């Protein structure tokens, strides 16, 4: 054993197993071969270990401690180096070394070999070396803890530490404190631990990042990364994720195909470029590929909180399990499912699929592209946006809008409202009482079940009421269309003011009225009321007792079977009563009308008492105005009002065939 003095000593070992104590002073101790034990003692000492497995203790003072490689020795042994008190510099040498800084602010390097490097208390610089090292920052705010080359284990300990994995497959634990962690090169596993940590892998590689507890910022960098914001444990080789862990975390995947998963708390997740999977937890999360719309086909899941989800560029799949969410698909052909809660979903550019798969009063818009928009079980507001879209309401009382393009709108269940918008749309109401509006373009509108209100708008529209007592009409515009209308089953109200229209009342007791065009009206089954309006109309009543009015223009009226009331109206009209006991009403301004099949045994001619300006009182007065011309009876009522009964000789007529009407309002129709 060799001891120094309290002064600055130069002490050298032998090739044997030496024990040297420098005692006081700034000593230089140089160990040779052998398993040596060296104590620096007090003072700023320099100790070089040599080839053997040495144990070096710096003790008090700011010491320089080397396993052997920094001087003339090869340092090939497995050394123990402990700095002691003071700001020490310690290097481990070529062997498998243990380097411990102990107190104060130390700089430690394991050098070559499989080393364990331990900073201890204080703000330390800790570096692992070239092999598979274990590096601890320990207590204090360590400003550089680096595994260096190799597959390293790096621990920050307590304090706000700066940690690097270095080259190789590293595992880094920030532990307690607000840490900054960079995996550097290689495929790294990075854990933040407790505290508000910043975790990134700037060197690339396929990395796994865990924020653990606290408000963390996680950046994956290049490579295909997996990012978790909260606690994950590993048991038997499996992952167990804790979705209830809290913390307002930020997870950024950047380049590569990344996997990002948050737990509880209000989190921000961004996948960056690449095909990413992004999953939210139970907190109020903000998720996205990137807010600037980076590329990549991403899978995004919002979790249970009130989330903001952005797909960005690429064909994205976005799913949110619960909460009141706002979702933007952005560019690309996206598939979006809203989940539970009242969601606002916007498809953005591209041919998108938007679905609400649970309950909730949702607002969804396909925006640009040929989109599919499907509501769920709640009262939804759905819009196709631009281009040719398919919009389905689902259950609930929904509001549907087609927007631009040739859209298909279906209300499905519930009392729905649907507006087709521009271009030619296909609109169906489904069950219950619906309000459907075609607006611009040649629309096809079907009310289906329920008592529906259907409006056509501009364009050549086709409207079918379906079952129920429906109301079918048109918004008056400057762009009249030639429409095809059918009431369907039920007692329907149908009116169309413009265009040359084809109108069919179908089943039920219908009221049908048209406007200025040359229309074709058919009552169908039931006791119908049919009025042609202006124009040269063709009107047929079918079976049952119908009321038919031609309105202005030269009209053709056919009552069909049943006891019908025929009103020619202004213009030169031709009327056919068909079977049954028919009545024909003549009023002032009717013009010169013809009745083709007047049945003198059953039919009655009703005449307004003031039709010619002279008050008529009795049926005999009307019969006295009749003359026979060529086997036809012609009755000139004066005032440009006349009626011709074709094929009916005057001799066949009696006063029973005529009736004077004084109050038209009291006429039984």
TrEMBL record:
GO CC annotations on file: extracellular region
Subcellular location: Secreted
Gene3D superfamilies (alphabetical): Serralysin-like metalloprotease, C-terminal
Disordered: region residues: 368-425
Annotated keywords: Secreted
SUPFAM superfamilies assigned: beta-Roll (SSF51120)
Superkingdom of source: Bacteria
Matching PROSITE patterns: HEMOLYSIN_CALCIUM
Any one Gene Ontology molecular-function term assigned to this protein's record: calcium ion binding
Compositionally biased region (Low complexity): 406-425
A Pfam family reported for this protein in Swiss-Prot or TrEMBL: HemolysinCabind
PANTHER family associated with the record: S-LAYER PROTEIN
Protein name: Hemolysin type calcium-binding protein
UniProt source species: Stella humosa
């Amino acid at each position: 054993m060799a001891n120094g003095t309290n002064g600055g000593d130069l002490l050298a070992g032998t090739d044997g197993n030496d024990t040297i104590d420098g005692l006081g002073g700034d000593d230089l101790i140089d160990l040779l071969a052998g398993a040596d034990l060296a104590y620096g003692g007090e003072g700023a000492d320099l100790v070089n270990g040599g080839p053997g497995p040495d144990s070096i203790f710096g003790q008090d003072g700011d010491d320089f401690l080397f396993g052997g490689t920094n001087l003339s020795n090869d340092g090939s042994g497995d050394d123990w180096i402990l700095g002691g008190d003071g700001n020490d510099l310690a290097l481990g040498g070529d062997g498998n070394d243990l380097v411990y800084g102990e107190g104060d602010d130390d700089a430690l390097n394991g050098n070559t070999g499989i080393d364990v490097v331990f900073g201890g208390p204080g703000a330390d610089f800790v570096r692992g070396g070239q092999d598979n090292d274990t590096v601890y920052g320990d207590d204090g705010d360590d400003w550089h803890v680096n595994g260096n080359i190799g597959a390293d284990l790096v621990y920050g300990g307590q304090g706000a530490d700066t940690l690097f994995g270095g080259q190789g497959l590293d595992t880094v634990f920030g532990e307690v404190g607000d840490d900054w962690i960079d995996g550097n090169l290689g495929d790294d596993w990075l854990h933040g631990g407790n505290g508000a940590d910043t975790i990134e892998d700037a060197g690339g590689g396929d990395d796994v990042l865990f924020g653990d507890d606290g408000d963390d910022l996680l950046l994956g960098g290049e490579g295909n990364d997996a990012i978790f914001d909260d606690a994950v444990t590993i048991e038997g080789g499996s992952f167990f994720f804790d979705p209830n862990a809290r913390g307002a975390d930020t997870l950024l995947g950047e380049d590569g195909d990344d996997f990002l998963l948050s737990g509880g708390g209000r989190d921000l997740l961004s996948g960056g470029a690449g095909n990413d999977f992004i999953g939210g937890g139970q907190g109020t999360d903000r998720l996205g590929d990137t807010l600037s719309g980076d590329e990549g086909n991403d899978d995004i899941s919002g979790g249970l909180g009130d989330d903001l989800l952005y797909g960005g560029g690429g064909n994205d799949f976005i799913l949110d399990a619960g909460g009141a969410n706002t979702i933007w698909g952005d560019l690309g052909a996206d598939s979006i499912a809203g989940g539970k809660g009242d969601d606002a979903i916007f498809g953005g550019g591209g041919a998108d699929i938007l679905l609400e798969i649970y309950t909730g009063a949702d607002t969804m818009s396909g925006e640009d592209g040929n989109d599919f928009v499907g509501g769920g079980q709640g009262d939804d507001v759905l819009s196709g946006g631009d281009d040719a879209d398919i919009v389905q309401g689902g259950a609930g009382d929904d509001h549907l809008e087609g927007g631009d393009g040739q859209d298909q709108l279906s209300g499905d269940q519930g009392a729905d409202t649907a507006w087709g918008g521009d271009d030619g749309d296909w609109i169906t109401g489904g069950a219950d009482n619906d309000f459907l509006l075609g607006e611009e373009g040649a629309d096809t509108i079907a009310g289906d079940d329920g008592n529906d209100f259907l409006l056509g708008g501009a364009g050549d529209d086709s409207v079918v009421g379906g079952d129920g007592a429906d109301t079918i009409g048109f918004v008056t515009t400057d762009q009249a269309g030639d429409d095809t209308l059918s009431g369907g089953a039920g007692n329907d109200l149908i009116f169309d003011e413009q265009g040359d229209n084809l109108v069919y009342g179908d089943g039920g007791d219908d009221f049908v009225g048209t406007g200025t065009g040359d229309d074709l009206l058919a009552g169908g089954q039931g006791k119908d009321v049919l009025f042609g309006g202006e124009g040269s109309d063709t009107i047929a009543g079918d079976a049952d007792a119908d009321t038919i009015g031609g309105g202005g223009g030269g009209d053709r009226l056919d009552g069909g079977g049943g006891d019908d009331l025929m009103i020619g109206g202004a213009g030169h009209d031709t009327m056919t009563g068909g079977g049954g006991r028919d009545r024909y009403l003549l009023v002032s301004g009717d013009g010169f009308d013809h009745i083709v099949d007047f049945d003198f045994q059953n039919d009655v001619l009703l005449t307004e008492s003031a039709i010619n300006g002279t008050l008529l009182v009795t049926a005999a007065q009307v019969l006295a105005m009749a003359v026979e011309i060529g086997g036809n009876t012609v009755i000139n009522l004066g005032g440009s009002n006349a009626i011709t009964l074709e094929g009916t000789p005057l001799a066949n007529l009696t006063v029973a065939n005529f009736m004077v009407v004084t109050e038209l309002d009291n006429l039984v129709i």
